[in-house]
Amino acid sequence: MIEYLALIILIIISLSIALCMIRVYKGPSTPDRVMALDTIAVNVLAFIVILSIVLGTEMFFDAVLVIAVIAFVGTVAISKYLMKGDIIE
Amino acid sequence: MISLILHRVTRVIIHILLIFSIFLLLKGHNEPGGGFIAGLMASVSIVLVYLTYDIETVKRFMPISYPAMIALGLFFATGMGLGGVVLGYPFLTQTFDYFQIPLVGEIELATALIFDIGVFLTVVGATLLIISSIGEGS
Questions:
Q1: Range of the domain at A41
Q2: Hey, of B51, B55, B138, which one would you mutate to test binding to chain A, going by the most A CBs within 10 A of its CB?
Protein backbone atom coordinates (compact mmCIF):
# COMPACT_ATOMS: atom_id res chain seq x y z
CA MET A 1 0.00 0.00 0.00
CA ILE A 2 2.59 2.53 1.11
CA GLU A 3 4.75 1.63 -1.91
CA TYR A 4 1.97 2.49 -4.39
CA LEU A 5 1.26 5.71 -2.50
CA ALA A 6 4.95 6.65 -2.56
CA LEU A 7 5.13 5.90 -6.27
CA ILE A 8 2.14 8.18 -6.97
CA ILE A 9 3.70 10.94 -4.85
CA LEU A 10 7.01 10.61 -6.70
CA ILE A 11 5.20 10.98 -10.04
CA ILE A 12 3.36 14.08 -8.80
CA ILE A 13 6.61 15.64 -7.54
CA SER A 14 8.29 14.94 -10.89
CA LEU A 15 5.38 16.66 -12.63
CA SER A 16 5.78 19.64 -10.31
CA ILE A 17 9.51 19.88 -11.08
CA ALA A 18 8.69 19.79 -14.82
CA LEU A 19 6.18 22.64 -14.41
CA CYS A 20 8.80 24.65 -12.49
CA MET A 21 11.28 24.06 -15.33
CA ILE A 22 8.74 25.56 -17.73
CA ARG A 23 8.51 28.61 -15.46
CA VAL A 24 12.33 28.87 -15.37
CA TYR A 25 12.39 28.80 -19.18
CA LYS A 26 9.47 31.19 -19.82
CA GLY A 27 9.52 33.38 -16.69
CA PRO A 28 8.96 36.98 -17.79
CA SER A 29 11.18 38.44 -15.06
CA THR A 30 14.24 37.30 -13.12
CA PRO A 31 12.47 37.02 -9.70
CA ASP A 32 10.06 34.52 -11.27
CA ARG A 33 13.01 32.36 -12.32
CA VAL A 34 14.58 32.62 -8.85
CA MET A 35 11.36 31.55 -7.18
CA ALA A 36 10.98 28.65 -9.62
CA LEU A 37 14.54 27.46 -8.90
CA ASP A 38 13.87 27.65 -5.14
CA THR A 39 10.69 25.62 -5.60
CA ILE A 40 12.64 23.03 -7.59
CA ALA A 41 15.07 22.70 -4.67
CA VAL A 42 12.19 22.14 -2.21
CA ASN A 43 10.67 19.55 -4.56
CA VAL A 44 13.99 17.74 -4.82
CA LEU A 45 14.13 17.60 -1.01
CA ALA A 46 10.65 16.04 -0.85
CA PHE A 47 11.62 13.62 -3.63
CA ILE A 48 14.69 12.40 -1.73
CA VAL A 49 12.74 11.95 1.52
CA ILE A 50 10.00 9.90 -0.20
CA LEU A 51 12.66 7.90 -2.03
CA SER A 52 14.38 7.06 1.25
CA ILE A 53 11.03 5.83 2.61
CA VAL A 54 10.70 3.58 -0.44
CA LEU A 55 14.26 2.28 -0.13
CA GLY A 56 13.99 1.95 3.66
CA THR A 57 17.28 3.71 4.41
CA GLU A 58 18.33 6.70 6.53
CA MET A 59 21.50 7.49 4.60
CA PHE A 60 19.96 10.31 2.55
CA PHE A 61 18.77 12.51 5.42
CA ASP A 62 22.11 14.32 5.76
CA ALA A 63 22.07 15.02 2.02
CA VAL A 64 18.54 16.46 2.43
CA LEU A 65 19.73 18.87 5.15
CA VAL A 66 22.79 19.92 3.15
CA ILE A 67 20.73 20.59 0.00
CA ALA A 68 18.18 22.58 2.06
CA VAL A 69 20.85 24.84 3.57
CA ILE A 70 22.69 25.42 0.29
CA ALA A 71 19.44 26.20 -1.57
CA PHE A 72 18.44 28.69 1.15
CA VAL A 73 21.77 30.51 1.10
CA GLY A 74 21.81 30.53 -2.70
CA THR A 75 18.34 32.05 -2.88
CA VAL A 76 19.30 34.71 -0.32
CA ALA A 77 22.45 35.55 -2.34
CA ILE A 78 20.54 35.88 -5.64
CA SER A 79 17.84 38.00 -3.96
CA LYS A 80 20.46 40.34 -2.49
CA TYR A 81 22.16 40.62 -5.88
CA LEU A 82 18.83 41.55 -7.47
CA MET A 83 18.02 44.08 -4.74
CA LYS A 84 21.41 45.77 -4.23
CA GLY A 85 23.57 44.70 -7.19
CA ASP A 86 26.33 43.68 -4.75
CA ILE A 87 26.37 40.41 -2.84
CA ILE A 88 28.92 41.08 -0.07
CA GLU A 89 29.23 44.69 1.02
CA MET B 1 20.91 46.74 6.78
CA ILE B 2 19.11 44.74 4.16
CA SER B 3 16.08 43.11 5.77
CA LEU B 4 14.76 42.72 9.30
CA ILE B 5 13.47 39.21 8.57
CA LEU B 6 16.86 38.06 7.31
CA HIS B 7 18.58 39.51 10.40
CA ARG B 8 16.30 37.66 12.82
CA VAL B 9 16.41 34.40 10.84
CA THR B 10 20.21 34.51 10.61
CA ARG B 11 20.61 34.96 14.35
CA VAL B 12 18.55 31.82 15.01
CA ILE B 13 19.78 29.68 12.13
CA ILE B 14 23.53 30.23 12.56
CA HIS B 15 23.67 28.11 15.72
CA ILE B 16 21.75 25.25 14.13
CA LEU B 17 24.05 25.26 11.10
CA LEU B 18 27.27 25.25 13.17
CA ILE B 19 25.97 22.42 15.38
CA PHE B 20 24.98 20.49 12.25
CA SER B 21 28.48 20.91 10.81
CA ILE B 22 30.07 19.61 14.05
CA PHE B 23 27.59 16.69 13.92
CA LEU B 24 28.73 15.86 10.39
CA LEU B 25 32.38 16.12 11.48
CA LEU B 26 31.96 13.66 14.37
CA LYS B 27 29.72 11.32 12.35
CA GLY B 28 32.25 10.86 9.56
CA HIS B 29 34.58 7.90 9.09
CA ASN B 30 31.87 5.34 9.93
CA GLU B 31 28.84 6.87 8.20
CA PRO B 32 28.36 9.48 5.46
CA GLY B 33 30.00 12.69 6.61
CA GLY B 34 33.52 13.77 7.37
CA GLY B 35 35.82 16.75 7.38
CA PHE B 36 35.15 18.07 3.90
CA ILE B 37 31.37 18.33 3.99
CA ALA B 38 31.48 19.59 7.59
CA GLY B 39 33.88 22.34 6.49
CA LEU B 40 31.58 23.26 3.62
CA MET B 41 28.58 23.50 5.99
CA ALA B 42 30.51 25.69 8.45
CA SER B 43 31.67 27.99 5.66
CA VAL B 44 28.13 28.21 4.24
CA SER B 45 26.90 29.33 7.66
CA ILE B 46 29.59 32.03 7.88
CA VAL B 47 28.84 33.09 4.29
CA LEU B 48 25.25 33.62 5.46
CA VAL B 49 26.58 36.05 8.09
CA TYR B 50 28.64 37.77 5.37
CA LEU B 51 25.45 38.16 3.31
CA THR B 52 23.39 39.50 6.21
CA TYR B 53 25.92 41.91 7.69
CA ASP B 54 28.98 43.36 5.98
CA ILE B 55 32.67 42.46 5.94
CA GLU B 56 33.66 44.93 8.71
CA THR B 57 31.11 43.44 11.16
CA VAL B 58 32.31 39.89 10.52
CA LYS B 59 35.94 41.01 11.00
CA ARG B 60 35.05 42.71 14.29
CA PHE B 61 33.20 39.70 15.75
CA MET B 62 35.45 36.98 14.29
CA PRO B 63 39.07 38.23 14.13
CA ILE B 64 40.52 35.08 12.51
CA SER B 65 43.25 35.03 9.89
CA TYR B 66 42.15 32.59 7.18
CA PRO B 67 45.70 31.75 5.87
CA ALA B 68 46.68 30.86 9.46
CA MET B 69 43.62 28.61 9.64
CA ILE B 70 44.67 26.81 6.43
CA ALA B 71 48.21 26.36 7.82
CA LEU B 72 46.88 24.98 11.12
CA GLY B 73 44.64 22.50 9.29
CA LEU B 74 47.48 21.25 7.08
CA PHE B 75 49.65 20.96 10.22
CA PHE B 76 47.03 18.75 11.92
CA ALA B 77 46.53 16.51 8.86
CA THR B 78 50.24 16.09 8.11
CA GLY B 79 51.12 15.66 11.80
CA MET B 80 48.61 12.83 12.16
CA GLY B 81 50.10 11.15 9.09
CA LEU B 82 53.67 11.55 10.36
CA GLY B 83 52.70 10.12 13.76
CA GLY B 84 52.37 6.69 12.14
CA VAL B 85 55.81 7.06 10.52
CA VAL B 86 57.40 7.89 13.89
CA LEU B 87 55.94 4.71 15.43
CA GLY B 88 57.20 2.56 12.55
CA TYR B 89 54.00 2.17 10.51
CA PRO B 90 53.29 3.44 6.96
CA PHE B 91 52.28 7.09 6.40
CA LEU B 92 48.65 7.93 7.43
CA THR B 93 48.19 4.71 9.43
CA GLN B 94 45.25 5.14 11.80
CA THR B 95 44.06 3.34 14.90
CA PHE B 96 41.07 3.52 17.22
CA ASP B 97 40.01 2.57 20.73
CA TYR B 98 36.91 2.68 22.94
CA PHE B 99 36.74 5.09 25.88
CA GLN B 100 34.29 5.60 28.73
CA ILE B 101 33.28 9.24 29.01
CA PRO B 102 30.96 10.41 31.83
CA LEU B 103 27.43 11.45 30.76
CA VAL B 104 28.04 10.11 27.24
CA GLY B 105 28.93 6.46 27.74
CA GLU B 106 31.26 4.39 25.64
CA ILE B 107 32.35 6.05 22.40
CA GLU B 108 34.86 5.19 19.73
CA LEU B 109 37.70 7.64 19.22
CA ALA B 110 39.87 7.22 16.12
CA THR B 111 43.00 9.09 15.16
CA ALA B 112 41.31 9.70 11.81
CA LEU B 113 39.29 12.33 13.69
CA ILE B 114 42.47 14.46 13.95
CA PHE B 115 42.91 14.18 10.18
CA ASP B 116 39.24 15.13 9.70
CA ILE B 117 39.66 18.19 11.95
CA GLY B 118 42.64 19.21 9.82
CA VAL B 119 40.60 18.86 6.62
CA PHE B 120 37.76 20.83 8.29
CA LEU B 121 40.02 23.78 9.18
CA THR B 122 41.62 23.78 5.71
CA VAL B 123 38.29 23.75 3.88
CA VAL B 124 36.78 26.50 6.05
CA GLY B 125 39.89 28.68 5.68
CA ALA B 126 40.19 28.23 1.92
CA THR B 127 36.47 28.82 1.19
CA LEU B 128 36.20 31.91 3.37
CA LEU B 129 39.50 33.31 2.04
CA ILE B 130 38.21 33.00 -1.55
CA ILE B 131 34.79 34.48 -0.75
CA SER B 132 36.06 37.39 1.36
CA SER B 133 38.70 38.23 -1.29
CA ILE B 134 36.01 38.32 -4.00
CA GLY B 135 33.76 40.42 -1.74
CA GLU B 136 36.49 42.95 -0.96
CA GLY B 137 37.51 43.23 -4.61
CA SER B 138 34.09 44.20 -5.96
A1: 2-84
A2: B51
